[in-house]
Design goal:
The structure is a homodimer of 223-residue chains. Chain A has two domains: 124 residues, Jelly Rolls (Sandwich), CATH 2.60.120.10; 76 residues, Arc Repressor Mutant, subunit A. The first copy, chain A, contains seven helices and twelve strands. In chain A, the strands form three sheets. Chain A has a five-stranded antiparallel sheet. In chain A, strands 3-8-5-6 form a four-stranded antiparallel sheet. In chain A, strands 10-12-11 form a three-stranded antiparallel sheet. In chain A, β5 and β6 form a beta hairpin. In chain A, α4 crosses α7. The radius of gyration of chain A is 18 Å and the shape is globular. The interface between A and B is large, with 43 and 43 residues. The first copy, chain A, binds a DNA duplex (30 and 30 nucleotides) through α6. Chains A, B: This is Transcriptional regulator. Chains A, B: InterPro entries: cNMP-bd_dom, cNMP-bd_dom_sf, Env_Response_Regulators, HTH_CRP, RmlC-like_jellyroll, Tscrpt_reg_HTH_Crp-type_CS, WH-like_DNA-bd_sf, WH_DNA-bd_sf. Chains A, B: GO terms for molecular function: DNA binding; DNA-binding transcription factor activity. Chains A, B: Pfam families: cNMP_binding (PF00027), HTH_Crp_2 (PF13545).
DNA sequence: CGACGGCTTGACCTAAGTCAACGCGGGTGG
DNA sequence: CCACCCGCGTTGACTTAGGTCAAGCCGTCG
């Protein structure tokens, strides 16, 4: 609710999506970002931040909003490997060019930090990179070995935790995004949401607001 | 074949699995490893290198052999998030304790580099960490959005590439390991191997030696 | 008010899982 | 030295979770 309002008030002001502004406000950020020249990129929904194959010239930190990182197969199948929300750093690449796409999901602000990376910056960003690695590996367990119910439960709990463990979650992303993140179809995602609602585990206020009524029941599902 | 012989000749000599030896031979290694004090750990098949929950006190590099990194659900379901072969570095952790298990698959030698990591080492290991991240994210695409045939094809091609793109592959791991890596059952893995054999895409010399007869046909499968 | 896109629900289908039997090869003990 | 055993792999018959296809709903926006 709060986040939603914030996004909308910004979206009114920042209708020129993709506009780049010099930024001098000190927010919470990764240490090295504070001492680097940086810009903030304001993005409309579905605005591409970088594309697969592009040279990787920067790191990115979500100021507000949400971002999806994904990859496509040639027949259009899509796998979202990560969602990133406020405070998180993304855009790491192994060999200087992007292997994934990054897009804003909703109206978002992205802090941009130009490369190259020196030794100090390496030390500062290593924890972020390792966090991303652990998250990806844990997500492999969810996708590789858990069923649809367990995947959705894990997704909701992860999202709740990253939004400060409040019981009410605002979903920035569509059912399609959730399906492509969890390796499921939108129909299956929808059915699991409905099942959780019928079981009293969650309440749905519209399609994009989820209240976790029994978070422990959800936790019990994903072991 | 060559690798297999190498492993067996070592295994005869190094029957005391888990024995730790001071090592001063200069091999191919990550830069920082050369200047760090290090040891080499010789492992029998299924020897645990570290366990989930343990304090992370070192980084590891495969000298020879192969390692599996995995995680368990409480009911025993297992997801292998990565296999590591000669030259590869593993054991990165985000907050000082291991979230995964690491085990030798076959007779292996593991170079051990004690932490903590200074700034120089950070810069040196960042590329390895980023490579692991990219691999994990690409594996998400395979597991999340590809069918059994595509998964096995991708697995064989990845293994071939990491063994120097020779057409003949020695599988260090069992069908169970492959299934737990690809999010499939052993029966499904076995059926796909048989299908590839019947189609003339591969030749099987015993269960653990695979000859890629038509690598391009396999490549065409996983887009 | 109507159209459109995102979401839900139902009926049906299929890829992969489960269960079970059997084959094979390497290791051991009689 | 041979016979047995055991663990790994293969194959077949059947089941099922989740995908596919299709219809309809609901909220938003022009």
């Amino acid at each position: 609710m709060l986040a939603h309002n914030a996004i909308h008030s910004h979206s009114a002001v920042l209708s020129k999506a993709g506009h780049i502004a010099r930024n001098d406000m000190p927010g919470q950020m990764a240490p090295a970002f504070a001492t680097q020249p940086h810009q903030v990129l304001f993005c409309s929904p579905n605005k591409e931040i970088y594309a697969q194959g592009e040279r990787a010239t920067a790191l990115y930190q979500v100021e507000f909003g949400a971002v999806r990182i994904y990859r496509l197969l040639s027949d259009g199948r899509r796998q979202i490997s990560a969602f990133h929300v406020a405070g998180e750093v993304f855009g790491f690449e192994a060999d200087g060019h992007h292997r994934f796409f990054a897009e804003a999901i909703c109206h978002s602000a992205i802090r941009v930090c130009r490369l190259p990376i020196d030794a100090d910056l390496s030390r500062d960003i290593l924890p972020s990179a390792l966090l991303a690695l652990v998250r990806a590996q844990e997500h492999l367990l969810v996708i590789g070995r858990q069923n649809a119910t367990e995947r959705v439960a894990a997704f909701l709990l992860d999202l709740a935790e990253r939004q400060g463990d409040l019981p009410q979650i605002e979903l920035a992303m569509s059912r399609t995004d959730i399906g492509d993140y969890l390796g499921l179809t939108i129909e299956t995602v929808s059915r699991v949401f409905s099942k959780f609602r019928e079981n009293g585990h969650i309440r749905l206020q519209g399609a994009r607001t989820v209240v976790l009524l029994k978070p422990d029941a959800l936790r019990a599902m994903c072991v």
